[in-house]
Sequence to fold (546 residues):
Amino acid sequence: MISFDRVSKTYEQMNALSNVNFLIKSGKMAFLTGHSGAGKSTLLKLIFALEHTNRGVIVVNGINLQQMPTRAIPEYRQKIGFVFQNAKLLTDRSVFENVALPLQIRGFYKNEIKTRVCAALDKVGLLFKKNMNPITLSSGQQQRVGIARAIVNRPDIILADEPTGNLDPDLSHDIMQLFIDFNNIGTTILIASHDITMIKKLQYPVINLKNGAVQRDDLGRSDE
Amino acid sequence: MIWADQMNRANINQGNKTYGLWVSHRQNIISSLEKIIKKPLSSLLTIMVIAVAITIPTTMWQVIKNAQIIGQNWDGKTKISCFLTKNTQYTTASKLSQKLSQQSPIQKIVIKTPQEALDEFKELTNFDEVLDVLDDNPLPFVLIISPNPELNNQQIVQLSLQLEQLPQIQSAIIDLAWLKKLFALIELLWTAMAILMFLLFSAVLLVIGNTIRLEVQNRIDEIQIMNLLGASAGFIKRPFLYTGFWLGSIGGALSWLFTFISLSMLDKPVTHFSSLYASSFSLQYLPIKHGIILVFCCAILGWIGAFISSTRALSAIKNINV
Fold:
């Protein structure tokens, strides 16, 4: 569950977000659209506790982010899978070790890590690449490794920032299908994207941002 | 504690099992050592600087310790030289010697005749010709008194004062002044060493701190990603802390070896030197207990250096962008 209640964020007197309200219920999937600079990244950063709001209340999975102390942020982030635009993989280690990172952070035993990482890589169809260096993979494959890393912790929520930003339509479709699969098993998903044509095809609710304000929100409609 | 309740509630449907800190600690202890062993050249310089910096005060410490032992050994051999009045004859000297020997604070008396004293003086100096010119021997009889070894320095001084009261004795001199000077010198050296130790240990802290700072800079991508994946500051710092720990302990262990080598180089000259004084002194090496303490202190020092440095370096890169 992600809820924004009259949320505003300003950077040095510039309004990044102003009076944003929406509610994504648990297990739902939604898209976040808008031109670059409309505030999509800021909104995701707020949910991921990388930034603090100036006004308003954000509640994620029952946790009020304004009341959360700084030291609780790492544990909070462990429960959210974040898919970054440029995958953000470490090139000094294998695909397997990249995906294993969130589990190492949580202190899992080696055999447990192995089982989970292999399952996650299998899910994104890259198990056969597990011993490769991410540098040798195509950008679509790298993005899928990034997704495997985001889901390996079995998060309740997945946030994705332009996950198909630099991929061709076929690859984009495959990646979107992965998110839909995770949503089908109950994961809450919010994807920031400016790929309007693909979003229109997929028939999921959309939050449209313009100059930091919600212009259109058809989240309510999908519930009916 | 509202947030904690919320966190717990959020945890229930998660159902994930985590295995706490120990797994991560154990991994880091091993992997940070592996990193040093796999790339020995990059760590070697740091380790050598630490080893040399620690060897200097450690060797000095042990040398001063040895000097102190020499001083203490000499303590029991303090002698009182009683110069008898001029023109005393051998019989008088011998009688006095016999009388004094019966006193309990005195262990042994050796009579040195004026001729013996003159010969000794000639041997020690090059005044042969000058002395030959003299008509008669200006030196008096000397009673060299070894006090009972159970007497302490103060009681020896007391004894010498009593001896001086005797009419046959001109003056009684205790050969203790140089010992006092030695002890004063040792005191001075301890202070000097404490200062040196402080400075060199600070240098070790700085060297480790700098190495860790560079290491943090080298791994900035990794740190940023770890931060995004929900790693706590403790988790991110842990490998750096263990690297500091290993650099410190390897440097400390090497300095123990270097101290041993330095002291073994001193062993021969010291043995030769002490044999000249008919002393059965042998050089004391750093005891194993102290060596272990040394390595342990260096490890702690490395850990602290790494902690300060990584905390500073990480706080500088805290605001990370997605």
Observations:
- The two ends of chain A are 18 Å apart (CA to CA).
- Chain A has two domains: 1-79+158-175+186-224, 86-154.
- The longest strand of chain A covers residues 14-24.
